[in-house]
Amino acid sequence: MIEPMVHLTLVFPPDARQSLLTDLQKLGVIHLSAAPAEEPKSVARMGKAVTDIREATTFLSGVSGPRDAATTPPEREPDADRIVRKIRSLRNKTEDLEGKIAQVAAERERSVRWGGMDRSRIEAIGQAGYRITLHSAPRTTALRIEAEFAEKEDHAVTRLGEERGMVYFALVQPAEGPETTVTAAEEPLPEHTEAELTDRKSKLETELSQTNAELAGLTRHIPFLRKRLRELENEIARNSAAAAAVPVAEGAAQLLTGWIPARRQGEVESFAESERAVAIFSEVSADEPQMEAALKATAHPPETDEEAPAGASEEANGSATAAADESPAEPPVLLRNGAFTRLFEPILKIFSLPSYHELDTTPFFAPFYTLFFGLCVADAGYGVLLLLVGFVVLALVKRDAMKPILYLGLVLSASVVVAGILLGDVFGIGLKQMFGSHSALAHLVLFGSTNSAMLFAIMLGVIQVIFGYVLRTINETRSKGPLGALRPVGVLFLLAGIVLVALHMAGPGFAIGPIPFGAAAAAFPAATAGYVMIASGLVLILLFNSLDKKIYLRPLLGIWELYEIATGIPGDILSYLRLFALGLSGGLLGEAIIKIALMVRGDTLLGIIPMILILLAGTGLNLAIGLLSAFVHSLRLTFVEFYKAVGFKGGGIAYSPFKLR
């Protein structure tokens, strides 16, 4: 559910601003609704410092090397700016050294490639009256060149090295006379010997090691840097809040506006009394300016010692009312759900938070999402594997922030087990085939046939779409009143009527798995009730589709809405067949993997090894594809088909209170 909010205006004397903001930050309850007209320069400076410290801390956290110095905290509180500059200098030096080492290593590799040939040897050959050039060519080309120069007395082709099919050779020819060329790439002459480059690389690596050791020593400052980072962030928040305070009554008072959870109103009232401030509350209203009525009835200037001039009361009241009228009409959204539903809030936030005036859809899609995820994988064996892995990871992970995600993973893994049992699939093998048709587990296979599984997926689509329109009716009633809800009620009647007529036409023998829908429909006049509901739904859709239009225009608009319903909702419901298709494809692929593994095993004992490898690799790949498909397609059914039925608007602003970090 969405936590109820009230709008708050704090009116306080200017001299109490700093102490009030400090204590208000400690209270950590108000979501400030006003932003400063212009960002203070101090905030910009501190913002740069925050960025620098955060980058330095992140870099230090990844530093490897000896950390003996890191275990000893600094004796006194150091200068954060000096530490950041030192880290930046050492970081730049590290990157420069790493670049030089890579450059020397590449040059050394080229030198080794030429068999120790360096510029001094080449110069010695030149002094003897010969010219030498270095070349590279594919092996076939090099062989042809060697054969071509084999009979020339004053020319020589000397192979110096070979690497990955490329031959590196030297062409020696007289310095006097015309230059002979070859059809091979000419390479630059090595500047240094292999020994020189090895020595240089060793020195650079030693310097890099010393630099890394110096950085590792600075890691002892990480706690201090994180503390300083929090201090700066808190100071930035206070300065921004101070800049957002609006002076009223010719500066005799200031006011700050924001939102608080309604359940903490008493706490804020007590806080205001202790801070020489006046707290003015107003309920959220969708059709009147925020706080106007409450301000007119209750606003008073702060009672200070000879601070407010004559007439300040009326001026403060009027200024507070004007400022309140400018406050945003949409309160922030704070979700408050139970332990199970709270696990699915990250999934909700992937799309958007609901607007404040909407229903929180999390409790309503959570059971469906769980079931959809399980049906997309639909294999009890895979589900058991996921549960085992989940429990092991949960036991190993110590970070509390990760545990809700792991608990969600366990819930979804359990749904895979349940769905696999309902559809009778274990590692791609039929559950009845594995355990026998008379086992206790076999009696839990309720939708084992292909026809039953397909109809079960369609049934879930019908249920969720209709349920979505129920929620839409509630939303429309809350935002537009009873008349505004008649159009979604019409769609509900239309859908329910069509379902009843379809069940009547299917006959009393129609069933989906063990659920005898046909017999239930035959127990009462389903056809008559269905036609009445269809007619009622059509009337409501045609007459109450656009309440802002004249009533004689609504039927024309209603015809277009009926067209959209006729072309949209059946497609939305058929979209749920993906649950059946994904589960079926995963089961068939799992069965194929087992058959291939058994074929590879053969009759020999040695065949067990490739069989196990194929089973592990194939099962892992199939499970990974299944999990990805389950996550994506369950999101799709929630955010497209279900949200379309609900009429979900979203766009809610997350509740972010002004508090100490």
Explain this structure to me?
With 661 residues, the chain is α+β, with helices and mostly antiparallel strands. Among the domains are: 58-106 and 200-225, no CATH class; 119-189; 339-646, no CATH class. 60% of the residues lie in helices and 9% in strands. The chain has 23 helices and 11 strands. The longest helix is centred in the last third of the chain and has 39 residues, at 608-646. It is extended and about 110 Å long. Residues 287-317 and 322-328 have low confidence and may be disordered.
Tell me the number of helical segments per DSSP (H or I, 4 or more residues long): 23
What fraction of the residues are assigned to beta strands by DSSP? 5-15%
Based on CA atoms alone, the radius of gyration comes out at: 38 Å
Name the structural class: alpha+beta
End-to-end gap: 26 Å
* Major β-sheet annotation: 5 strands, antiparallel
Low-confidence runs: 287-317, 322-328
Provide the helix percentage: 55-70%
Q: Please state the average pLDDT score.
A: 84
Principal-axis shape equals extended
**Number of E-type strands:** 11
Give the arrangement of secondary structure elements.
Layout: E1 5-12, H1 17-27, E2 31-32, H2 41-61, H3 80-113, H4 119-127, E3 130-138, H5 139-149, E4 156-163, E5 166-174, E6 185-187, H6 194-218, H7 222-244, E7 246-248, E8 253-261, H8 265-274, E9 278-283, H9 292-298, H10 312-325, H11 339-342, H12 345-351, H13 362-377, H14 380-396, H15 403-423, E10 425-426, E11 429-430, H16 431-435, H17 450-480, H18 486-506, H19 517-522, H20 526-543, H21 554-574, H22 577-601, H23 608-646
Antiparallel strand pairs: 1-8, 1-9, 2-8, 3-5, 3-6, 4-5, 7-8, 10-11
